[in-house]
Amino acid sequence: MAILSKKESTSYSGVSVSKRIKSRAQDPFILKKVKEAEAFLNKHGLPAALTR
Amino acid sequence: MTLTHYPLETNPEFLDYEFLSIGPKGEIRKLVRFTRMEVADTSLDIYNLAFGDYDKVGNTIDDDIITDNKDPNQVLLTVAAAVLAFTARHPEALVFVQGNTPVRMRYYTMGVATHLDGTLKGFDIWGNIEEEWELFRPNRRYIGLLARRKAEGV
Questions:
Q1: Could you say which of B12, B94, B128 has the minimum Cβ distance to residue A44?
Q2: Average pLDDT over residues B97-121
Q3: By CB count within 10 A, which of A48, B62, B107, B136 is most buried?
Q4: How far is B131 from chain A (nearest CA, A)?
Q5: Residue range(s) defining the domain that contains residue A30
């Protein structure tokens, strides 16, 4: 895989932006991880500094 | 020797990132994804950071694989670069990280400790230990981490 492609990429904050990088929003792995993370935060809450 | 992160690519939404780990095992494709979460009793923008190797068989991410490509510090630095790029785009976002095993969580914690005065200097970071949140301190066995860019001028 070529990480940088001048034709397809633009640069932003030292990171290349490319439409070739697909969204993993519906990836089952991601969905599972998000569910676990939500359960964690709903159980433990947030740091006090963030709830004032 | 100054370590630099691997070249990093993201999509126009700045939510998905890819890079190649290069070492004795060859080129390993790594993926990072930030996903907004629904957390009760808060309107804060909280994103989960998921990270792992690309699994071409399932066309998914796998965080169970132990690659051992002899570049853990460079990989962590690259993930930190993804956090920087993401939070530059979403400065109010909180980023949550949880390792899939205690060993992986310790790896993340050590990585944060290493870059606390450098790459991550501009962040407030909290760790969850024994079901309580505290400001991040090195050498603690956290089970979850939360990070947010410090407000401008702080």
A1: B128
A2: 89
A3: B136
A4: 6
A5: 23-52
Is any Cβ of chain A less than 8 angstroms from the Cβ of B17? Answer: yes
Domain-located, residue A1: no
Residue A15 is assigned to a structural domain of this protein: no
Strand segments, DSSP code E, in chain B are 9-10, 16-23, 26-36, 46-55, 60-62, 94-97, 123-129, 132-135, 144-149
C-alpha A34/C-alpha A20 separation (Å) is 24
Instruction: Report how far apart the first and last C-alpha atoms of chain B are (Å, whole number).
Output: 30
Count of alpha carbons within 13 angstroms of residue B152, beta-carbon side: 4
Number of domains in chain A: 1
- Radius of gyration (C-alpha) of chain A in whole angstroms: 18
Element (H, E) at B149: strand B144-149
Q: Assign A7 a pLDDT band (cuts: 50, 70, 90).
A: very low
